[in-house]
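ok here's ABC transporter substrate-binding protein, seq below lol
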Amino acid sequence: MRRIALAAAAAALAAAVAACAPSTPSSGTGGATGGSGGGGADRITIGTTADVVNFNPLVGNSRTDTWVTNLMYPHLMQMDESGQRIPYFATEWSYGDKGKSATVKLRDDLKWSDGKPVTADDVVFTIEAVKKEKFGVVAGLITALDKAEAVSPTEVKFTLTRPDGTFLHNVGFWMPVVPKHIFEKAPSVQKFANAENWVSAGPYRLTKVERGQRYLMERVDSFGPAPGGKPGVKEVVFRVFPDVNTEVLALRNGEIDMIGNVLPPATAATLKSDAKIKLTQIPSLGWAHLQYNTKRKPLDDVRVRQALAYSVDYEAIRNIAMQGFAKSSNGSVLTPSQPDYVDPTIKEYPFDPAKAKALLAEAGQQNLSVSMIYDQADPNIAKWAPMVRDSAKKAGITIKLQGLERNTYVDKSLKHDFDIYAGSWAIMDNPPANFGLAFKTGGFINYGQVADPKLDELIDKGQRALSPEEAKAPIQEAARIIRDQVYDNVLYVETFNIAHSAEWTNWKPMPSELLSILNPLSLAQVKRAG
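and the structure came out like this:
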């Protein structure tokens, strides 16, 4: 979700980013640093396929942006392997005033790299700046915020305009905290490139940038959330490679210690038998799916959407295109990765071409022909999109594939310029909040233009609930409507494979493509095996 939403702002930011990018240092080769990443127990080297686009953590666009800035700027919360929120900068959090206020209490031992303490004032500044300038995913998740105030250096109170039980988890997980005394100097926080002289407060600080080659980060010796208060590895290096295949070769040769990118299923399968490499498997918090444009005829007829759902061979996609590294969500947008909400009564549409033909006949449709857009650079979707087309032929449906360049694909998605949208959400971590974004009338990422008053009512009820237990019933009912009306057709939940050298252990996995084992708490405690 973060990837899609931020891409919409990429074009506007590109010129500013290019103008403010740091210059390449004159020293250093950026090449291989030796065996096992070249640093022994004191350095871990990570492969990536992209440079940092923006060092401002509030507007970063690429995965590498997120990986690097996550090590520099704290979030209030992280999550455990099951997706539950756990403390990071915040130690505890709660709601008051029947859900119309919220409070977080903070650690008192984090410092910015210039020596100033990280306090409630930094949290208040960050969220108020996002609210004022209305940018990024966070802005879409804090619509209930009235104001934020620092009760003390270690306590923040949020006053809300309405009860919103999603607010704390949204802010805690999605919003990085930036230094007020640095970012307030910029006329616009959104446009601040933060391109040099970084003042940060994570387990590592950025010390050198060699664009197209590497990013060098050094340990912060006093970092409270790390085991023993100090990260175990002295240096973290991100090395830039042209593609995943080159990363795999570097990992096999001992030039790097892990690959940051999630491996395509076919690549993961080839590494299973390599004793020098381990695959850590991470469950996705998102899902791969097809969305149908409910405002385009004949897709505005639920029978046509159901016919399309019956025309997909889900098992073949999971077993062949995904090499078995995917599992069924039972046709539900409440996936097995969300144990607090999952509903076992929801069932996946079976692959039934005859049923699809009958529904089309009932809807008065003959020789149905529709188009489907997808990101041609996505290796998974590029494999299963033709399978969707071919299985639909058995139901007498013609699907014209449109593999698009990434920016064109995003633009068409945001403008609802498609019949069928094939894609995936990277992180859908909070069902009441996510449903509001994706399925509520006018939602920020409601690509299918769903407009269902009953669904809106249930989502509102789920968002007002102050606990998963209270939100569960309305959100499960909403999920059943989404399935029955085919507002979203979930194909699978991917099992992500992260490859790393067997010489490293003690990783802390988190269930998302962006966090995986490449998250601040994981890198703060990873160590040499034995």
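fwiw The chain is about 30% helix and 20% strand. kinda neat tbh
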